[in-house]
């Protein structure tokens, strides 16, 4: 329990750090004087273009693992590609993130296998978690179809090792990249943005 | 002593807030001190390392306390930091502190009893830079600085 708690917290820290670098750079490119905090804390739902997968509410541990696995399996080839970008700043952030994402993917992959190839209960939950998250997968490749083969290879390999069949594919859900979100993002932002909105001059 | 030497000497006293036995010089995160000692470039260890901001503040404080407050501090992301940049002295300090220094070896030797009969408990430890290991000889848990 403690190890998983630490792992997920560490992983969250890496993601926060990556987001902070990327948002900071986006703010500079925008040139409107907004920094990473301004972009994170002072934008409303429709201004966010995150993928829908990451704004879904937590379910059980298997769903958390499914989400992390699918997310990292997409981010790994994404950062690898960005590490070769002509934009030196973006490439620098990506090079750092490549190493971190490799850890995340390894962690999630090991748990998919452990749960999928575990007890009847853990296996049923892993299948349910993957099925539940799968509708958000196509959106990840909306603007980056070239990353799909690497993702598919990772998923196929890991599911085979876990003794699981490919997830049930329902109708994909899209929209996050265009600011059309599920109801859950608003709730997340309300919690995340409360402090700087209530106390605009707060410093921490 | 030149200004650059003074800056280096000061920075070798600025300790990592989470592993307060190694300095920012030991960790290899001070990438450059310009020849005139007026510019210092620092590379963060991990994107989300909460110590990065604290380190920046500590470096500024140390420089200004010594009357070198006019030094320009820049954060350099490229090339990304790697544990290969930790100095020999830094590795020795980590080991003495009970943290197995980063190494490409599959298994680190226990920093307490020296046994190489060790096993990984979790790839994620008490800070982003460490993994949790256990010694099967002396049965004690220990941190291993991740090869990164």
SSE string of chain A, helix = H, strand = E? HHHHHHHH
Kindly state the number of beta strands of chain A.
0
**Rg of chain B, please?**
17 Å
The major beta sheet of chain A can be summarized as: none
The tally of strands of chain B reads 7
Q: Greatest contact pair?
A: A-B, 27 and 21 residues
Shape of chain B: elongated
**Would you identify the regions of chain B where 5 or more consecutive residues have pLDDT less than 50?**
none
Work out the oligomeric state of the chains in this entry. heterodimer
Q: Taking all residues together, what is the mean pLDDT of chain B?
A: 91
**Termini separation of chain B:** 35 Å
> Quick check: average pLDDT of chain A?
95
The SSE string of chain B, one letter per element, is: HHEEHEHEEEE
How is the largest sheet of chain B built, in terms of strand order?
4-7-6-5
First-to-last CA distance of chain A: 30 Å
Can you tell me about this structure?
- The complex is a heterodimer of chains A (204) and B (148).
- Chain A has 204 residues and is mainly α.
- Chain A has 8 helices and no strands.
- In chain A, helix 4 runs parallel beside helix 7.
- Chain B is an alpha/beta fold and 148 residues long.
- Chain B has helices at 3-11, 24-27, 51-65, 88-97; strands at residues 30-33, 39-42, 72-75, 99-100, 118-122, 130-135, 141-145.
- In chain B, strand 1 (30-33) and strand 2 form a beta hairpin.
- Chain B is elongated and about 50 Å long.
- The chains are: A mainly alpha (204), B alpha/beta (148).
Describe the structure using short key phrases.
heterodimer; A: 204 residues; mainly alpha; 8 helices; 0% strand; globular; B: 148 residues; alpha/beta; four-stranded mixed β-sheet; 4 helices
Question: What's a quick, concise take on this entry?
Answer:
The complex is a heterodimer of chains A (204) and B (148). Chain A is built from eight helices and no strands.
SSE layout and pairing:
The complex is a heterodimer of chains A (204) and B (148).
Chain A: H1 2-30, H2 36-41, H3 61-82, H4 88-116, H5 120-134, H6 137-140, H7 148-162, H8 183-198
Chain B: H1 3-11, H2 24-27, E1 30-33, E2 39-42, H3 51-65, E3 72-75, H4 88-97, E4 99-100, E5 118-122, E6 130-135, E7 141-145
């Amino acid at each position: 329990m403690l190890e998983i708690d630490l792992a997920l917290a560490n992983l969250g820290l890496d993601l926060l750090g990556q987001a902070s670098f990327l948002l900071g750079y986006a703010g500079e490119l925008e040139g409107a004087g907004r920094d990473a905090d301004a972009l994170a804390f002072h934008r409303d739902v429709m201004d966010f273009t995150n993928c829908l997968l990451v704004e879904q509410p937590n379910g059980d541990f298997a769903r958390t693992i499914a989400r992390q696995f699918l997310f990292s399996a997409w981010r790994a080839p994404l950062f690898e590609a960005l590490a070769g970008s002509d934009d030196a700043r973006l490439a620098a952030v990506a090079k750092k993130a490549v190493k971190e994402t490799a850890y995340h993917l390894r962690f999630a992959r090991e748990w998919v296998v452990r749960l999928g190839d575990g007890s009847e209960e853990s296996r049923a939950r892993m299948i349910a978690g993957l099925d539940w998250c799968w509708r958000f997968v196509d959106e990840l490749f909306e603007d980056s179809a070239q990353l799909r083969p690497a993702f598919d290879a990772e998923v196929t390999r890991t599911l085979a090792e876990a003794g699981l069949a490919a997830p049930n594919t329902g109708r994909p859900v899209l929209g996050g990249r265009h600011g059309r979100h599920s109801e859950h993002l608003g709730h997340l932002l309300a919690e995340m943005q409360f402090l700087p909105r209530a106390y605009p001059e707060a410093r921490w | 002593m030149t200004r650059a030497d003074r800056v280096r000497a000061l920075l070798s006293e600025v300790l990592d807030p989470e592993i307060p036995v190694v300095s920012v010089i030991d960790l290899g995160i001070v990438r450059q001190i310009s020849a005139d000692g007026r510019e210092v470039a620092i590379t963060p260890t991990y994107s989300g390392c909460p110590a990065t901001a604290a380190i920046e503040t500590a470096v500024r404080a140390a420089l200004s306390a010594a009357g070198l407050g006019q030094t320009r501090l820049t954060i350099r992301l490229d090339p990304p930091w790697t544990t290969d940049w930790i100095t020999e002295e830094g590795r020795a300090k980590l080991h003495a502190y009970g943290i197995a220094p980063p190494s490409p070896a599959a298994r680190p030797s226990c920093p307490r009893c020296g046994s190489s009969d060790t096993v990984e408990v979790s790839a994620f430890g008490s800070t982003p830079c460490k993994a949790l290991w256990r010694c099967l000889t002396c049965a004690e848990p220990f941190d291993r600085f991740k090869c990164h």
